[in-house]
Design goal:
about 130 residues, alpha/beta, Cytidine Deaminase, domain 2, seven-stranded mixed sheet, 7 strands
Length: about 130
């Protein structure tokens, strides 16, 4: 059975708008909800010293977001980031730094005129694509 992430067009549009606004830097953020049902996007600052090719969510923002999710009875559903000039697939660095095996990883590629959004599970360095519904 193929896994699936329920990500509404409204949330996809919000993630895409964030990616386009932050380009040429990588945009990043969290997706809150329950199980595989995404309810809201939490934009975060890319705090990586090389933000054009890497991302790191600001630790203070991440802590605030996790506290807010707890207060609202939500959980971390997914982590998203953009690849401004490459394919929407987890890079070796993305795989090595995927520290939340229960979360989905959503990638946005802006390399073409039509942006692509894909979702994955990344566990122990292994990547498997999941359906976006």
């Amino acid at each position: 059975m193929t896994e699936r992430l329920a990500l509404s067009m409204e949330l996809r549009d919000e993630i895409l708008a964030h990616a386009q606004a932050d380009a040429p830097k990588e945009a990043c953020g969290l997706i809150a909800g329950t199980g595989s049902d995404a309810r809201r996007v939490i934009r975060c600052a890319n705090a990586h010293p090389a933000p054009v090719t890497r991302y790191a969510i600001d630790p203070r923002e991440q802590l605030r977001a996790f506290r807010d999710m707890d207060a609202k009875g939500e959980e971390l559903v997914a982590i998203y980031h953009s690849h401004p000039i490459t394919q929407p697939y987890p890079s070796p660095t993305d795989r090595a730094e995927a520290h939340y095996p229960d979360a989905f990883y959503v990638l946005v590629s802006l390399r073409d005129t039509h942006p692509e959004i894909r979702a994955y599970r990344v566990r122990d360095g292994w990547v498997s694509e999941v359906d976006l519904a």
